[in-house]
Design a protein that fits this description.
heterodimer, A: about 180 residues, mainly alpha, about 70% helix, globular, B: about 375 residues, alpha+beta, 4-stranded antiparallel beta sheet, 4 helices
């Protein structure tokens, strides 16, 4: 009986710690994933799997930063697998979701479609670098750690990715700021 | 406003237009974690029941009827041991399947011919080429530390450079590996992991070995008669003393890198019309019901089971560059452009686990 009460208490405490972290980061991770793989619904799916794995290892997390890097790393790895697996989808054009009002949980806008068309000009690695740094607000070192590449490589991908994205979005070309 | 700020605004606006149902997702995540945790507990208790109490097994099997399959789709776990390179460092590496983290396990530029986790995952064994030339069988902790050479051989008993294999006994006391014995040719050698005694050299011409989960048999590739003409090898099981060979396959193809499933019921291997076009196959442990799991025009190699037997990881050049694939097909280069993939044990849902130029999976533990 005491053991059961103890387990229930531990579960509640775990949930209390994890849930605020989830609310603070889930949307960002889901949207970042959607940008990397250029698929709104799949972005939410991979974020869900990433946070599920995080919760399974929640006791190992030393800090919020540790947890944040972990969940982005898992999400990026899942995104890579997704791109490999569904590569042909992107060869034949953009996958459009069902019309508004249907079951798609993420309802894209024209701004979204414009962005994923522009992101299509970037390589998957460039996309990941741009999304982690310019959308998820990470520095090059954190992005490098998540992507398993050097900070210098991240900066090169970032520079080239930003340039391609500006062209795709029709923005003015100016010098990189980073 | 700088162009970078403009870019950030565009990204924020586009991504912000996506509606995310966080509350529903949170409930789903807690539900999935609870379900997976329940699945793991069920497995552990079932294993204990197999060892001790048959009646408990029956009770749990009844309870399992309504349980969801474990593990759920898309969630292999554990650590894959592979040979390859990380930057300029070549050797053996451990991949955390969940996080994608890669740990370097061997000394810089050690020429590692083969490696395997111990059955409990706490140790690592590998065959290393050394100057001389000499070859060493090395045992280390799972993180590569505390390396101890338990056996060394000089040129007279080299493992062949092309066909190497290594497998732990289930109790972790012995290691079987393919090598060359003086006056004997290629065969299986068995050494004690504490370094004691002389190697046992098995009769026969064997080039690959996998120890059965119950410890009673070795799955080997080759011929029972030493000195037999080398052609297309077949799979046999033999006792660990080399006796009682039982032939499992009898065909024109060679079944490379055979491996017993954790429950001992199935065998996975790579085979094909020739060594430049290989696919992954699985069959029952008695050699029946051979099924093709992959169908790729190039190389699908080195299949290994996940610890729970639900997944098979393998190397493939399916995402290599055309030049690399052509090199593999022509035989100009062996093992180029190989990345690591995983699939369900029935061959479904193939996905990339680790991208690399030469990722050769050799062992998987929890």
């Amino acid at each position: 009986m005491e053991l059961k009460v103890g387990l229930e208490k531990a579960t509640v405490e775990l949930r209390m710690d994890f849930d605020p972290f989830f609310h603070a980061h889930f949307e960002k991770v889901a949207r970042a994933g959607a940008l990397v793989i250029r698929d709104a619904a799949a972005g939410q799916d991979l974020a869900q799997e990433a946070f599920t794995r995080l919760l399974e290892r929640w006791g190992d997390m030393a800090s919020d930063d540790h947890a944040r890097n972990f969940v982005y790393k898992v999400a990026i790895n899942l995104a890579r697998s997704h791109l490999r697996k569904h590569g042909r989808v992107f060869l034949y054009g953009l996958r459009r979701p069902d019309p508004p009002g249907a079951s798609d949980p993420m309802e894209p806008s024209d701004a979204w479609f414009g962005m994923i068309e522009a992101l299509g000009a970037l390589s998957p690695r460039q996309r990941a670098c741009v999304v982690l740094v310019d959308y998820a607000d990470m520095d090059s070192a954190a992005a490098a750690s998540i992507l398993g590449m050097s900070a210098g490589t991240v900066r090169v991908h970032l520079m080239r990715g930003r340039r391609a994205l500006r062209v795709g979005l029709g923005l003015d070309e100016t010098e990189d700021q980073s | 406003m700088s162009s970078d700020q403009q870019l950030r605004q565009h990204l924020e606006r586009a991504a912000g237009s996506l509606q995310v149902d966080t509350d529903r997702q949170l409930d789903r995540i807690h539900h999935v974690v609870e379900r997976r945790g329940r699945g793991r507990r069920v497995r552990t208790m079932t294993l204990a029941a197999v060892i001790g109490v048959v009646a408990v097994i029956l009770v749990w099997q009844l309870r399992l009827v309504d349980e969801p399959p474990f593990p759920p789709a898309g969630s292999p776990t554990g650590r894959v041991l592979y040979l390859g390179a990380k930057g300029s460092h070549r050797g053996a590496f451990g991949l955390d399947v969940v996080t994608g983290d890669v740990a370097t396990l061997t000394e810089e530029n050690a020429s590692v011919l083969w490696a395997a986790w111990s059955p409990d995952g706490s140790r690592l064994a590998y065959i290393q080429q050394e100057p001389g030339p000499r070859y060493a069988v090395v045992i280390a902790d799972a993180d590569g530390s505390h390396r101890v050479t338990i056996h060394e051989e000089d040129d007279a008993s080299l493992p062949g450079p092309d066909l190497i294999d290594l497998s732990w006994s289930p109790d972790g006391d012995r290691i079987a590996y393919s090598g060359r014995a003086l006056g004997h040719g290629r065969t299986i050698l068995i050494v004690n992991t504490d370094g004691s005694g002389e190697p046992i050299v098995l009769d026969g011409l064997w080039v690959s070995v996998s120890w059965s989960p119950d410890g009673d048999r070795l799955l080997v590739l080759g011929f029972p008669e030493a000195g037999a003409h080398e052609g297309q090898f077949d799979l046999y099981t033999i006792r660990p003393d080399g006796s009682d060979p039982v032939q499992l396959t009898d065909d024109a193809a060679t079944e490379h890198e055979p491996s017993w499933s954790p429950d001992g019921a199935r065998i996975v291997f790579a085979s094909g019309e020739d060594d430049l076009s290989q696919d992954i196959y699985v069959m029952n442990a008695d050699g029946s019901d051979v099924r093709k799991l992959t169908d790729w025009a190039g190389l699908d190699l080195l299949p290994i089971w996940s610890p729970d037997g639900q997944w098979v990881a393998f190397a493939s050049d399916r995402d290599a560059t055309p030049a690399q694939r052509e090199s593999n097909r022509s035989g100009d280069a062996i093992f180029t452009g190989l990345s690591l993939y995983v699939m369900h044990a029935d061959g479904s849902d193939v996905s990339m686990m680790l991208e690399g130029d030469e990722v050769l999976p050799v062992s998987w533990r929890g």
